[in-house]
Amino acid sequence: MLKIKLAAAATLIGSVSLLALALGGTTPTLAHEHRTVGDHYWIVGFLNEPAYLNQPNGIDLRIYTLPAGIDPDTAKSTDRIGTTGLDQTLQAEVSVGGGAEKLPVELEPRFNDPGAYNGYFIPTAAGDFTFHIFGTVEGTDVDESFTSSPEGFSSVEDTSDLQFPVKIQSPQELATAVTSADSGGDSNTLPIVLAIIGIAVGVLGLSAGGLALSRKS
After folding, report:
1. Domain extent listing, the chain
2. What's the CATH superfamily of 27-157?
3. Which of 96, 120, 123, 132 could form a disulfide with 156 if both were Cys (CB 3.0 to 4.6 A apart)?
4. What is the reported pTM?
5. Count of helices and strands (H, E) across the chain
6. Contact between residue 95 and residue 130 where contact means Cβ atoms under 8 Å apart
């Protein structure tokens, strides 16, 4: 019984370690939707693509203008003139699979990248996500929705098929394992399990704190 409970706790550490690694950095964006909205050009997608279940991610929003005569389809990144201050005039919501439930997401200006904004969240369901962005851009009302599609940004993928050689338990499975330890009546082994979980959560907290500091740099 002790081995089973410690194995469940060790699996939790593995899950938290993956989360900590994901918090430590981002991957290059692979696919985004490009859209013209009035006089501005929008690029929208996930911060990290491919987007994986239960991994820290967020909205990658970039809004810019171009000098006269520049075609947005062939424009270089150096041609783009970022639109700043939109974290004060735009709001964002996230939903998944056409569901009515929405998560408000705060947009933050990206350091040293005018016109780029991050909106952090952790997707806990696989499938197609929709980013609803609304408010004003330089005095003009906007109300735009962007949904995962083959022509746009990626859907959130389940990671179970990618795990090798050990399959990592889901948060739901881990919760069941801890509940089983508690209901088993073994007062000696449950504190060990909870202590290991506490260490794992502490590691995650340190990683999150480091990321917060890096965002301010």
Report:
1. 2-21+160-216, 27-157
2. Immunoglobulins (2.60.40.10)
3. 123
4. 0.70
5. 3, 12
6. yes
